[in-house]
Design brief:
It contains six helices and 44 strands. It is mostly beta strands. The strands form eleven sheets. A six-stranded antiparallel β-sheet has the order 38-39-40-41-42-43, sandwiched between helices. 36% of the residues are buried.
């Protein structure tokens, strides 16, 4: 029974232990704890002062040193745009953000080139901004449907912005007023249809059902992106539904709905395939699909491999070249911890997540972001009602994985020698190795390693431990990650001190210093650190009659408050453990 094994067994160890044994154990725990603190307790100020990043070729004569804070400012440029809810790429350097104003921002400098107030008599918000042609920079479209008629009546006001940022307004416009280029042709999304404004013909017709007063059965069409000089992809929308997507071909004059494309949202095209993500009306999913342009058959491509928290959003953008996909995982926080926003680069050929950009927590980016060009990503920054432009300077996963792989191989070779020689001397020269190897386990054939992405940032952590038996299948003795190109020990255990994984980045640490003292510590792992959530303590020396105490993050152990045994067990049993499988060092 877990509540007996997990709490009482650790604290009911030899109540008659002598003082010398107690002192020896306390010395051991103190030394382990002190080492652990040294490896993990760096202040933010120390990191900023000590961390340097060398750019360009490293030579004795020429080295450019950039501090971490300077690098962040350079990579994450904040633009004070107000509450931006949507962005659109226009040209190579310019994009705009509809908010209370229509802002045009230079993606290179991060400066607002112009800000245009939407007219007061534009009673509908800007729903779309499209690229202009010739002297026209952009067209902002404010539209509405009137479902009291069949088909629904459509009204659109258009704000036309010229290259010099002068503008004109068109009320109750026509399709040509809202036209833009697709495959070199002028088209417009007008009502439910897509219209060729050069000929005036409806080329992709929408659908409505007689008497559909509120649009429940209405389907409309929207342009997505060009495939080539003749074909473009359009998306079919409906009332709280995603009916699918299709392809229009100017050379044949045919609009073809892709079979079995319901709930698929197209994101881009690469190497003769359309990439889409399986989604729902209220959010994008984790499953990506590819559709063959010749057969129009769709098949599963990949499942985004990193854990998402409840209510945490995910969306995708594809570069215009089709060379990579960006998965944007939004910022999210709850009572347990903060889940950082991050960008992930996906290879469209191998379905591998190759690199990551972690967005600092101070940028609370809850919303969908937009790939502006091959090197810039934009996302709204809610806390300050601003926008951040992210330069796509990727951290390659392969580099960190190779560092950990090399460390594992060093440990594996040393461990094999330990078993063969029945000696632990080989470990004395290995930095940051788990003390578990020094406590009767050097000749064990069950110790091993595994990789696990505990915080869902796309970079796997390295764990040392053993599979265990019965109650705990996956006992962790050491947690390692990579920091500044080197192996970093997050925390490690030893005799009467180990860890269990509870899922969602939560780690349980069970430890015992003596028969009268033990604890269950629950922490949240994020960005190479363990942050205390809560801790249950058994301290018979502090109180023989009421030995159970409780503390949370931010409190010291002296501030722990007394609780009952029932309350202690309820807290501990509120966490489930997740099986972790280890590859033995000796196979």
């Amino acid at each position: 029974m877990r509540k007996i094994i997990a709490l009482l067994a650790l604290c009911a160890v030899m109540l008659t232990a002598c003082t010398e044994e107690r002192q020896a154990e306390e010395t051991l725990i103190d030394s382990v704890t002190e080492s652990s603190i040294v490896t993990t307790a760096e202040t933010a100020e120390e990191k900023a002062a000590e961390t340097t990043i060398v750019t360009g070729p490293v030579t004795e004569k020429e080295t450019t040193v950039v501090t971490e804070s300077e690098q962040e400012k350079e990579q994450f440029r904040v633009v004070d745009t107000g509450n931006s809810w949507r962005m659109f790429a226009l040209d190579d350097e310019i994009f705009c953000v509809p908010a209370e104003h229509l802002n045009f921002i230079n993606a290179d400098t991060g400066e607002i080139e112009s800000s245009i107030s939407t007219p007061d008599d534009f009673i509908h918000p800007i729903g779309k901004v499209v690229k202009g042609d010739g002297d026209v920079l952009a067209k902002a479209i404010c539209s509405e449907y009137d479902y009291s008629t069949t088909p629904p009546a459509y009204h659109a006001d258009v704000l036309i912005v010229n290259d010099d940022y002068t503008y004109e307004t068109i009320y109750d416009g026509k399709p040509a007023d809202a036209s833009f280029k697709a495959c070199g042709h002028n088209i417009a999304e007008w009502g439910l249809d897509i219209v060729d404004t050069d000929s005036g013909e409806v080329i992709v017709p929408g659908y409505t059902q007689d008497g559909d007063e509120y649009g429940f059965y209405t389907q409309w069409n929207a342009y997505d992106f060009d495939i080539d000089e003749n074909r473009f992809v359009y998306r079919i929308g409906g009332y709280e539904s995603i009916p699918g997507f299709g392809i229009y071909d100017f050379s044949t004059g045919m609009a073809t709905t892709v079979p079995e494309s319901r709930d698929l949202l197209p994101i881009g095209c690469h190497d003769g395939k359309i990439y889409s993500v399986k989604g729902a009306w209220d959010g994008w999913g984790t499953e990506l699909y590819v559709t063959n342009l010749e057969t129009l058959e769709s098949e599963f491509f990949m499942d985004f491999p990193y854990e998402l928290c409840i209510n945490q959003m995910l969306d995708y953008s594809m570069s215009e070249s089709g060379e990579f996909i960006v998965a944007n995982k939004a910022y999210y926080s709850d009572d347990i911890g903060v889940y950082s926003a991050a960008l992930y680069r996906i290879n469209p050929d191998t379905a591998e997540v190759e690199a990551v950009i972690e967005i600092p927590d101070k940028y609370e980016c809850y919303n969908q972001g937009y790939l502006i060009d091959e090197g810039t990503f934009a996302v709204s920054y809610n806390q300050e009602d601003a926008t951040i432009l992210v330069d796509l300077k990727w951290t390659e996963f392969a580099d960190n994985k190779a560092i950990l792989d090399e460390f594992v191989e060093t440990v594996r070779v040393a461990y094999k020698e330990c078993v063969e020689s029945e000696s632990i001397d080989q470990f004395e020269e290995i930095e940051m190795i788990s003390p578990v190897f020094f406590y009767g386990k050097a000749n064990s054939d069950v110790l091993g390693y595994c990789y696990l992405d505990m915080d869902g940032d796309g970079m796997e952590e390295l764990l040392f431990g053993e599979d265990g038996e019965g109650e705990w299948n996956g006992i962790i003795y050491g947690i390692y990650t990579v920091r500044d190109g080197k192996v970093h020990c997050v925390d490690y255990g030893g005799e009467r001190n180990f860890f269990l994984y509870c899922g969602n980045g939560i780690i349980e640490n069970q430890g015992s210093a003596a028969a009268w003292y033990s604890y269950h510590r629950f922490s949240k792992y994020s960005d190479g650190e363990l942050e205390l959530i809560e801790k249950v303590i058994y301290d018979g020396e502090r109180s023989f009659d009421e030995p159970f105490f409780y503390m949370t993050g931010g409190q010291s152990e002296e501030e722990a408050v007394p609780i009952s045994e029932e309350q202690a067990l309820e807290i501990i049993e509120g966490y489930d453990t997740v099986d972790v499988e280890f590859t033995p060092f000796i196979q």
